[in-house]
């Protein structure tokens, strides 16, 4: 067909405040400026190649050459320019066919990082994928912007796999339902899956509900985003939930004020929020009231804030029932505030977990003052510290540390916890069935055993007696047992019992020896006594790690 002249626009306007698209394209990825004339000549050469040599329709070839700057820059790096850029580029293309899908996808609005995974593995020429071109042209003729079609391909490649004539029939089917061509041209970009199967009934029902509430198609288009993925079935479910919650009369005002409730994340986050609150026992009418007071905040942020508070309550060891009361009573407060980290709050408030739980239960409104970016002041002294010191001193004296100030000072460093807590932990061991004097000796020998929660101490005693079959009196001889993890204890005894069954371990090895040996000594003295010992040891470790 020969070459032809591409007319140039006269006196293009360039702005100093914001670099134009054409100006942006004059810069390579490394920031080195590519002369505008060079880029123009390269575009012309690419257009001639695509249209004249590859027989791609002129409109498509022009769109590809003008809207694939990344591809052109990459191509220019490969071409040896001899005086005339256009001629040099044409000569290069004559002997070096390009992968036409690259400039094609880029011209559809996709970045290289987006379209690279979408490139066909065994194809280079667009003409080899006739269905892709056919469906692409149907969308163009329907009024979909070319630089938006890439998003359709990225979200729903099935749209471009329809047989000849099928896509047009699907578009016409929506038009017959009263949806305008301009409206559908936008919807296809935002929600291309409406074209992958039969007519999306839930999509039509959602539109009918919104129209019934007074929202026209222009309003719907305004509140949709290319960045979102719309699941119309899920959005329809949210409408059902709102009606079940008794929001029918206020639904129009609610959606008008907070369209994100419907369109952000296809309402998935709203459904997650409803499920979360229902799990804590919040009634449907209270959830309805919450949505009517919903703050000006993204739904995802609201949900994230509530979960952040929930995890905070767990970290400070608040009882589940108390967490539920706060979540049900103050959902708006929790969702509107982005809480600081737990460690930061404990430090800034200068408080322990137990007192913080109590303070929150008595003053839940204070939670709103602990958000990110706020200055948190320490809680006032409750006087509990002085009382705790007295209880600790009494506890140490009862243990037999005496009135010696140096011994008491060391005891305060060794034992962690309030005075009352230490006594409770001590009583757990006594109540298991040991004499108080024996437990006092145990604590003097291994004071660290009281630096654990009551539940953990009780659990370790239960494992020793009921699971491993040792007498409770074993603790008197080996109080440090309570300091070791349950995983270590179970692993060591499982290995020892296997070796004993194989006749490769001393039958009456002391519990303290089995548990307290270092891994290195345990391996050399026990595990390696059997040829299969190391493998059994590794298998047991994997098993106990998995169970943990």
UniProtKB/TrEMBL annotation:
SMART domains: Mterf
Record carries keyword Ribonucleoprotein: no
InterPro entries hit by this protein: MTERF, MTERF_sf
Pfam families recorded: mTERF (PF02536)
Keyword Transit peptide included in the entry's annotation: yes
Keywords: Transcription, Transcription regulation, Transcription termination, Transit peptide
GO MF term set: nucleic acid binding
Domain of life, per lineage: Eukaryota
GO biological process, one term: DNA-templated transcription termination
PANTHER family with a match to the protein in the record: CGI-12 PROTEIN-RELATED, TRANSCRIPTION TERMINATION FACTOR FAMILY PROTEIN
Family to which this protein belongs: Belongs to the mTERF family.
Protein name as annotated: Transcription termination factor MTEF18, mitochondrial-like
